[in-house]
Amino acid sequence: QKDRYIAVKVTIISAAWPDFPGSHHATFVREITLGLASKGFDLTVITPKIYDESLKKEKDGPVLVKRFSFPSGGLLLSEHKRVPVIRMGIYFVAGIFTALWDVIRRKSAIIHAHWAIPTGTMGTIVSFLTRRPLVVSVHGGDVAEWGNKPYLRPFLYFALRSADAITTNNPRLVDSNKLNLSENKVHLIYAAGVDTNTFHPSNKDRSLITEHGLQLDQLTILCVANYIERKGQDRLIKALTELPGVQAVLIGAGQERDALEDLVKQHGLSDRIKILGAIKRELLPPWFRACDLFVLPSRYEAMGVVLLEALASGLPVVAARVGGIPNIIEHGRTGLLFENHDELVNSMRKIIHNEGLRKKLAAQGLVEVERRFSLSKQVEHMANVYHSVLR
Known about the structure:
391 residues, alpha/beta, 8-stranded mixed β-sheet, 14 strands, 39% helix, 17% strand
C-alpha cells in the first residue's frame, strides 16, 4: 500500500513542532507526520521559529522542517497572555510566504494545516493562490479558545468553510450544521493516537524513583504536561496536601515551572514532589512504567494524547472532565474524571487505596487503547483523508 502514496507531496503548516531534544511541543503532530512519511508521502513541515537556538531548517527523519522567523518572544502564540496582534500579523505574512514558496517549488499536491487559527487561515490563502486542496486539522484550543474571540471567529469560519477536508479529535468542536458543512467533509481522527510499540506495560523498573530521591514504599503519581497555567499542575500539588504517604513526579517545560516549585515549597512538599524539566521523548516510557498512577489536572484539554500514553503503559488514570478528555476516558471504566478539588482528591484516594480498582481501570484502559487509539490506525485514517481530497 505504500506505493499508493509514493511521490504524493504534502506541505504541512503547523503552529508548533518540537523545537529541541526533549521538547513536548506538538509531539502528536510529529508522530502522525512521521507515520505518513513511512507510507511514502513526501512531506515538508512549515512551522514558526520560537527559540533562538531552534534550527531554521533540519531533517527530522525523512521529513524536512522549515522554520520561519517572527518576533516570538520565546513563546508560542498560544502561550501569550493576550492575543499578540502585531506578532501574529508578522507570523501570518512570514508563514504564508514560506509555505507558498514550498508548494510552488516542490509542486506539492496537498496543503495540510494543523490548527485552524492562524495556520488554517494561512493554508486557505496558500490553497487559493496555488489551487491545491486543503486539509485543516482542528485540535481544540484553536476553536475553544481563540475561536471564541469575536475578532478571530471570522478567520476560524473562513478556514473551515474553505477546507476540502477537516479532521478533529472531538466531534463537538466542529458544528457542521452551523458552518453549513457537508457531513463527509469532517473526519474523526484522534490526533496521532499512541505508538503501542513504544508505550506498553512491562515489569516495573523503579530505579528512576530512587534516583530522584523518592521512596520505593510510596505510591508514585506521574504528570507529564507543559508548565503552563491551563495544564493545572497547581491543582495536583494542592490535592497532594490532603494525601499523605503519596509522592509525585512532574515532567515538562514552560514558563510556570518556577511558580510550581515555589508552590511545592510553600506547602512543604519538596520531599514528596519532584519537578523535572523536559526530557527526550524516548526517555518517557520508562517513567510511565516506573509510576503507579497518572493524573492530568488540566483546566482545558482538547484531547490529551498523554492520556493515551498512560493507558497504553498500563497506568490507571485520573483526569479533569474538560474538553475532549471524556472522549478518551470513560468514567469508572477506563479511568476516573473530576470537576473540582474535592473530586480530584477523592478520585486519587479511591485509586491509591484500592489495588483492585487500579488493576481493573488499567486493564480496561489498555484494551480501549488497542481497540480505538493506536497510532497505526490514526495514520491510516489520515492517509485516507489525503487520498480523498485528491480524487
